[in-house]
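Intended use. Records like the one below are meant for learning the mapping from a protein sequence to its folded structure. Do not use them to infer anything beyond what is encoded.
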Amino acid sequence: MTATPNRFRTRRAVGVGVLLLVAVLAATLYACNGLSRNEEPAARKWAYLPVEEVPVQGASFHPQFLTSDGQTMVAVGNTRDEVANGMNLDAWYSTDGLHWQTGDLAEHSRSPGRWAEVSGLNRWGGGFFAVGVISNTEGITRMLGAVAWRSTDGKSWQSVDVPPHDSSLFTLPDLYSDGVNVYSHMGGDTMWRLAPDGSEWQEFPLDGADDCSYRDGAGPDGPGLVVYGHCSDGSMDQNGKPSTRPGILTIGKRGEVEEVSSRISPQLLFMTLGVARNGETLVAAAPAKGGDREPSPGSAPSDAIETVVSRSTDGGGNWSPGVSLPVERPVRSGSSTINRIVHTDGSFLALGKVHILSKVHPAIWESADGVEWSYRRLPAFAEEGLLSSAATVNGRTAVLAVHGTRGATAKGLFVDFTVPADASAPATSPSAETAPSTDPASLLGTWEGTVRNADSSLERNVSLTITPRPGRGPVTLDSLTGEITVGSLATCTAQLGKPTQPRDRGVTFAVPSPSFWPKTAVFERPYCPTVFEVRLNGDDRMLWSGDRGFEGTLTRSEPGTEDGPEPLGGYASR
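Structure written out for the chain above:
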């Protein structure tokens, strides 16, 4: 009878030990998970390529604007021609971000006694679009009016009519894009919108926020139009100058303007430095007093003015509190500055600079979600050099490094890929012998499989359906279309963009506007490629190579088969 309590005490002791062990393991896992969440994401490496070393066929490389549709990267820029007393305006295009060829924009931008200067470049539903002004080259130089050009491929350009404007001829036209249409604005209460077919400009009156001026747009990677700059509240500062505040404005389909920057806390100051977006997600940067970083020794927290970044996941309706971007020591508090934010290659890039020991260094902050940021300080390339824009083509990203603001001088490119030592200018066009010979009809069907990143630590299931466009007759590369689905829960679906077949490569598809499913508590990191390349390896196997280093093999699904690979709800750790 006395054994029962002893057995009970023994079992209870064992049970308490098991509970303690489980608690210790849970605490350890929680701590490890907390550490992993607090660690900065790994920053990609960047190599600097001086502009003189960029392989280019044709005119010398002097870009000021850079953009891409995922398949072709386009650059446009001016350089002063002292002999002719004017500007040399050129455009270049590339399918790999390294080798460039010159387009024919110069032929459409110059005439006897006149020259043109570009002031904006963007992509849209019809390809690429640029705006600028035309001036005389004889006597006293003066602007004669606005000018615009469009191109489907960055190679062949044509002049287009420009809209009326309600401002001074001395104002450079602004250019914005929502991915489908382009918009031009030269002040006043009216924008002008051009449809993708380029047929005519339509008046696009603005309704609201009359006290705001626009500096730039957030990019075409989302619905509607988002612009930023500054707004005036009608008062004067202590120096007797008009007081301004940062302005972030959404513009609806009928021109309704709503200022959304006032919802960001802490209160932003002066002017919005940059805004980028991915769908409904907006990421904005602006100065603010009392950033979350520790102030420099001797300065009070309330006196510190920091560049802060805030995120909205509902198109500007609600914003997270502004937080300071990570920097290294001994960067002085308040000395980091953002010039621009872009969304490219599935990431937000904040392009800016930091001061270290009285020297200015360019810097790039990168984030997949606009919340957790990595930091990379780059080598100084010019006194007060700036990072002005970035674009991605076929998984390769290039960042334009310039000196100066208006009339900026191109200094080089920072690229996230290896530059061969023997890189040379591209041939004018691929020869018939070297062009890939994949039959477009052999790509039709549904392909499924798993793709993994370079170290096989992350994987996703992919379902790729390629179909011919209706009413196109025989199947050609230009007639291919389709859609892609990645994963199941934290995933994306997207329509495929127009495919290309670069020299000595497989068929490359762009993914212009992926639609992400809502994130869940477990699966927080969706993945959708912005561009990928496929090659056939036999009749029923397709080799996949996507951006962000994902590769794998897809197999053709039999017609009528409902079962495919078991979907993964999120990233799988291996």
